Every structure is written in structure tokens, then in C-alpha cells.
Amino acid sequence: MEYTDYARRLMSYSSLAEVAEYGRVMEAGKEYPLFRLTVPGSRWLVITSGFHGEEPAGPLTLAESFAEIVAYAKARDVALRVYPCINPSGFEVGTRYNRSGEKPNNDFLRYEVTPGAWKGELTRGESFLRWVLYDGGPKETRAVRADIDRFAPPAAALDIHQDNYLSIAATYAYTFGDSAAYRPMVEAAASHVAVIRQQKVDEHNHTDADGLIQFHDGSVTDYFMRRGVPYTAALETTTRTPLASCHAVNLIWIRGFIDLAARGGT
């Protein structure tokens, strides 16, 4: 999809939300605006999507169902800050990284594991001395983090991804906090696509019985957890999953996170 067409769709929601640019990036001689959609309310939910360009379901769900999402949030007095497509050049050409080959996603934090030794990801149970914000990542990561940092931590934060490596139609999620909060979303999603439970998804991670993983990987989810946000998740559907099923699962988790934000918080 041409990003100009996607941006035009976002701008059509100006009657429902403040549609603002939080930055611009230049790729292959083309300038791409970066959009934030804001809806007022009492308790904030931040939604991010589109870090990886070959994972289109999240940006498309947000563009196609934004009016429905706003209505659900407003009914619960939940405010929204939505970053629908963080890597627009990758989204436009269907590549994981931006057109410069930079890798937006896991560059929010770094961990000092021993004096002077820094890592972006912690293995399970690995201790560390401290964490710091990382300023050396791709321009898309720097831009969205700078904008997020302008605001107090939200009550909840959801990042929408897809898994382009597993060769089956399925879903799982990276989460922090009480698994019980996410279990209803997992079970609702299971009516649309298989949940990967107690299985390996990559060389580092296995899901638990609920299809959930805790992984400190320097991502926006990890970043929000370190800022004290009680409900944080990175939702995955595989790219082998039919788009309609991806949309259904994405909306289940978006509504679920609106409900979590409505419980209280900042």
C-alpha cells in the first residue's frame, strides 16, 4: 500500500481524534510523516504498531477500525494515544526494516549486565546492574520514544506485531504483569486462530500455558514496563494467519486493553 493512501485514511478520522505529526523521516529520497492519533479521556491507553513493515495487520486494523475503537474507548472514558505505523517506509514496500536497512523496534533500552558490558536483551532470569534509555537507535525509534516521553506513563500500553517466522496460523503475546489480566483475551482470540501454548517460538522464548512470554528485549513494551505501566503487551499473530482473523484478534486485545486502562491508573 502506498503510504500516502494510508495517511489519507488516517486523516479522515480528524473528526474523531486529533491527528498530529510527531515527526518526519526521509527514506530513499521520500519524506514520510509520522502520525499520532489522540482521543481525550480520563485514563490513558497507548497503542503502537507498524515497527516492522512486513507485519501489516496492526496498521491496517487501526486504520480500518479506528471509529469502532474510539467508540469503545469513549464509552469507558479511556483516552487513546495511537501510533499506528511507526515504520512507514518498511510498511510501504513490505520490508521488515526501513528502506535504509535500520531496525526499528528493540532500541528503547540497554541493560548493563556487568560493569561496562551492555546488552539489548536479557536471557531468562539474567540479572543486571541498571538499565538506561538508549539514544542510538534508528530514527523511527528515536522519534516515537521522544514523543512518548513527552507524556506521563499511561495506564496500559499495547504494541501490535506479527510473527513472520512461524509457518502456521497462530497467535501469542509478550506480556508483563499478572497473566490473569490477559487470559480472557487469549481465550477469546482462540476462537479465531490457534494459540501457541507451551511451545518454542524462537531460540530464546517458549510460551507458557496461556500462550504468553515475558522477555526483556529493549522494546517499547519493555520500556513501558520499566516506566511502571501495569499492563503492557506485544501481541503477535503470524503473517500466515488470514488477515480477517488477525483483525479479529487485534480488536479483541485492543478492547481488552481499553478495559484494563479503564480499571484505573494515570
Q: What's the quaternary structure here?
A: single chain
Number of strands: 11
Largest sheet: 8 strands, mixed
Q: How much β-strand is present in the residues?
A: 25-35%
What is the element string, with H for helices and E for strands?
A: HEEEHHEHEEEHEEHEHEH
- First-to-last CA distance: 36 Å
- Overall geometry: globular
Poorly predicted spans: none
Average pLDDT figure: 96
Give me the Rg, rounded. Answer: 17 Å
User: Which structural category do the helix and sheet elements fall into?
Assistant: alpha/beta
Continuous helix count: 8
Helical coverage, percent range: 25-40%
Strand order of the largest sheet: 1-2-4-3-8-11-9-10
What does this structure look like?
The chain has 266 residues and is α/β, with parallel strands linked by helices. It has 8 helices and 11 strands. It has an 8-stranded mixed beta sheet with strand order 1-2-4-3-8-11-9-10, sandwiched between helices. A hairpin with a 2-residue loop joins strand 5 and strand 6. Helix 6 (183-189) packs antiparallel against helix 8 (243-262). It is globular. It starts with a helix and ends with a helix. The model has no long low-confidence stretch (mean pLDDT 96).
How do the helices and strands line up, and which of them pair or pack?
Elements: H1 3-11, E1 18-27, E2 30-39, E3 43-49, H2 57-64, H3 66-75, E4 78-83, H4 88-93, E5 109-114, E6 117-119, E7 130-133, H5 139-148, E8 156-163, E9 171-176, H6 183-189, E10 212-213, H7 220-226, E11 231-238, H8 243-262
Parallel strand pairs: 3-4, 3-8, 8-11, 9-10
Antiparallel strand pairs: 1-2, 2-4, 5-6, 5-7, 9-11
